[in-house]
Structures are given as structure tokens and as C-alpha cells.
Amino acid sequence: MDKYFIIDIVTSILGLACVFLAGRNSKYNFWVGYLYTAALFLMFWNKNLYASLLLQPVSLAINIAGHYRWTHPREDEKSASDSKKLKVSMLDWQERILAIASVFIVAGLWGWLLDTLFSADPHPYLDSCVTVLILMAQLLSAMKKWDCWIAWLLVNVSQIILHLSVGHIFMPIVCGLYLINGLWSLRTWLKLYRNNS
């Protein structure tokens, strides 16, 4: 087995474990997320996917902030079922429109920058779109917003296309499993939101 194959397998396992735990409202998803970020950095480095590569330090920072938010809620954010947990909330429509506009603007600018500076990136605009969607999904996850799962579903579909286009073996399968987990989590977190949990 070559090192790329091993990196693909390890990244796939860590990613699945991370999103499985997040979908089940477990704070332990953050610990697995730290390892997943490191594995993704190596995987993207090997495939010259620079937007996704540059995302990893930012992802790590969001993961740390989210870990803190989930375990240190303010008084009005506490879950009804456990006062040490952050409850699930939702964006309002104005916040949703702002989030969508931000994704399009930042992805377009980032794609242009990648296309201009890093000609080795095989798909600069798709790479940038996936990257910005991931950042948005992570930010919403860190705030425990139900809407994060809609963003993750869009990420999963985009990532399947991106990974297939660069020849990754396991990541398209993993992203398909993420898609299934995302649909399940969308429904589960809606119940948590309704129960003020």
C-alpha cells in the first residue's frame, strides 16, 4: 500500500467518526475533528488542492471555538435537557440570505485568486466553492445552528464531484455516507430545536 492510499483510509475513518458524533449532538466530535483536520491537510497537500489545504488551519480554529461554545453556553443558550450543553438554534431568514450571499461572493473571489496564483489547482472555482461552503457549515456547526446541516448537504454533493475529479478513491464514498448522515442529522437536530435541547 502506498502512503496516499493510507492517508485516504485514515482520513475517511476520521471524517465519518467526526460527522457521526456531530449528528448525534456529541461534544466528542471535536476531539476527532482535530485529528481529521490534520489528515485532511496531508491529503489535500498531496493532490494540490490549495483552497482546501489552506482551509485546514481555519477549520482548526473554528473547531476549537465550536468546542468551547458547545460546552460553555451562555445562560439563555443552555439546553433544556442539559444545562452544560449549548441548545440547537436556527438562523432567521435575513441571516440565511446573508450567509448565502457571503458564500457566493467569497467563493468567486477565492476562485479567481486561486486561478491567478496557483495554476496547478485543477478546479479552482469548484475547490473554492467547496472550501467556502465548508467554512460556512463549520461556523454554523460551531454555533449549533440547525441550518448547518443544509450547508453540509451542499458540501457533500460538491465534494463528491471534486474528489471524483481528482481521483480520490475513498473520499467520494465517504462523502456519500456524509450525505446520508446529513439527512438524518437534519431531522434529528430539528427535533432537538423543537425540544429546546
What does this structure look like?
- By secondary structure, the chain is an all-alpha fold.
- The chain has one domain (3-71, 90-194).
- Helix content is 76%, strand content 0%.
- The chain has helices spanning 3-23, 29-47, 50-71, 93-117, 124-142, 148-166, 171-194.
- Helix 5 packs antiparallel against helix 6 (148-166) and helix 6 runs antiparallel to helix 7 (171-194).
Question: Helix and strand layout, with pairings?
Answer:
Layout (H helix, E strand, L loop, with lengths): L2 H21 L5 H19 L2 H22 L21 H25 L6 H19 L5 H19 L4 H24 L3
Helix pairs in contact: 1-2, 1-7, 2-3, 3-5, 4-5, 5-6, 6-7
Quick rundown:
The chain has 197 residues and is mainly α.
Tags for this entry?
197 residues, mainly alpha, 0% strand
Secondary-structure element series: HHHHHHH
| Secondary structure: number of strands | 0
Provide the domain count. Answer: 1
Q: Can you summarize the main beta sheet?
A: none
Number of helices: 7
Helix content: over 70%
User: CA-to-CA gap between the ends?
Assistant: 45 Å
Helix and strand content put the structural class at mainly alpha
Q: How confident overall, as mean pLDDT?
A: 89
CA radius of gyration = 17 Å
Report the uncertain regions.
Answer: none
Strand content: under 5%
Shape: globular
